[in-house]
Amino acid sequence: MTDPGPEPPGSGPLFARVRGLVVDVEPLRLDLDFRRLWIGQSVNRIGSQITRVALPYQVYVLTDSTLALAALVFVQLVPILLFSLGGGAIADAFDRRRILIAVQVSLVASTVGLVLVSLQPDPVIPLLFALAFVAAGLSSVDQPARVAAITRLVPAARLRPALALMQLSGNAASIVGPAIAGVLLGTVGVVGAYATDVATFAVSVAMLLRMRPIPPTGTPQPPSLESIREGLRFVRSRRLILSTFAIDLNAMFFGSPLTLFPVLALDVFEVGPVGLGLLSAAPAAGALLATVFSGGITRMRRVGRGIVLAVVAWGAAILLFGLSAFAFPLALVFLAIAGGADVISAVLRNSVVQTAAPDELRGRVAAIHVLVVTGGPRLGDIEAALVASVVGAQLSVISGGLLCLVGVLVVMRRFPELDAHLAPDDVDVAPAGADSPPAAEIPPAA
Predict the structure, then answer these.
(1) Under a CB-based contact definition with an 8 Å cutoff, are residues 280 and 53 in contact?
(2) CA 376-169-99 angle, 5° bins
(3) For the segment 132-167, what is each residue's pLDDT rounded down to a tens digit?
């Protein structure tokens, strides 16, 4: 018998198993417009993370008040509550690409406003809050359109890998952005931080301009209260979708410590602006690692069980983070574990929501999802800041972690179908390296 010789590099069963553990990059390789969306968002998210760290830092330095941080979060929450559902109706009625372009250009203007206000000798706090309100309102329109666009840019077999790649983008930006923010705040200040955010929008807009249109399918329904109610009725009739919203709201309302990072960095750990950047980046570092090795997660069959376990891990890690005030490096480790658990939960929850909605309703369902995943952390930030104003930042974090774990039990009792949910066969992701169906046809660019 002829010896076939050694297997070439990059082949063989061992390589296939290792490759199956790593995030599937097939959507970036095969789906051109998804790649463009991903690149633009990846760069822009770095700038957004810089502003996300710089703005509460600036407010806390100017006011020395945790209640001011709670007020900032509340100002950012209000437009999310007001405009997210309408943003979903808009995403179902108009070309999603055009919506994204318009919103990105408008966000540039709001960030330029932060630069101009911060250049003043005594920045006016109400103006900073007003600009934060505008930016949050614009993002409430951007996010449903962006989420709803993904399923039009990749076929069903590559949806979960595409969602994982979007998480990878956000997690990488959440490491790089806060790290850059810490350096910028310590050197050129908040003006330089905001100006860097402005520069990142150029890449995002350029990539969107190169994408093909994403017009609505079927007969689009004009944005109206009735179209919003239609989306709400659909979600209310799907207990599985409701269960993913409930468990995420529980995790974020009780377990989100983000708004306390300036207080923890400056007053508890005493590590200054650079330490603030590390605190902000640590959850994303864990999330990035979890996403890189998400190959098995994107092919998980017991999706519901995976969501439950991920939220339990999140709550436990936040609890241990709160107990680790004596050791800053150990606290960063627990934050990284929390970030890894959160991204696993997010990928699995997103896949449930995306596959449960028809395209003509996907923008509105995505808007409700966005309302939950962005409003929940904002409510959690307010809760954490208010509790911290009474018992201190560290006890606020500890109590939040404990209540998150209790909340998981409540959600499982109320929605037993979540733990039992299995991914449907028709949207299972093919193993890495297997043949994938061609991408869905997209109308030619105008």
Answers:
(1) yes
(2) 70
(3) 999 988 988 888 888 888 888 888 778 878 887 887
Can you say whether the dihedral through the CA atoms of 268, 270, 275, 278 is positive or negative? negative
| Residue that has been written with the tokens 């939950």 in this structure | 372
Other Cβ atoms less than 10 A from the Cβ of 274: the count is 15
> Phi-psi category of 219—alpha, beta or left, where left has phi over 0 and alpha has psi -120 to 50?
beta
Note the Cα 352 to chain centre separation in Å.
16
d(CA 272, CA 69): 17
Whole-angstrom distance, CA of residue 242 vs CA of residue 114? 37
Alpha-helix runs per DSSP H in 323-358: 328-356
What count of other Cβ atoms lies within 10 Å of the Cβ of residue 251? 29
The token duo for 373 is: 């995943």
pLDDT (tens digit per residue) in 315-332: 999 999 988 877 888 989
This prediction has a pTM of 0.67
- Residues 75 and 340: their CA atoms lie apart, in Å, by 29
Closest by CA position to 429, among listed 153, 33, 244, 164: 164
- Mean pLDDT of the region 306-319: 91
Q: What is the pLDDT of residues 340-366, one digit of tens each?
A: 888 888 888 887 877 777 777 777 887
- Number of Cβ within 10 Å of residue 440's Cβ equals 12
38 touches 167 (CB < 8 A): no
As a whole number of angstroms, the distance between CA 234 and CA 100 comes to: 25
In single-letter form, the type of residue at position 160 comes to: R
| Amino acid letter, residue 179 | A
Using one digit for the tens of pLDDT, what is the confidence trace for 161-219? 888 788 778 777 877 888 888 889 888 889 999 999 999 988 999 999 999 988 887 66
**Would you tell me how many other CB atoms lie within 10 Å of the CB of residue 127?**
15
- The full DSSP string for 366-420 is HHHHHHHHHHHHHHHHHHHHHHHHHH-HHHHHHHHHHHHHHHHHHHHHH-HHHHH
Q: Are 263 and 386 in contact (CB under 8 A)?
A: no
Compute φ and ψ for 374, nearest 5 degrees: -100, -40
Reference 43, options 156, 200, 214, 168; nearest CA is 200
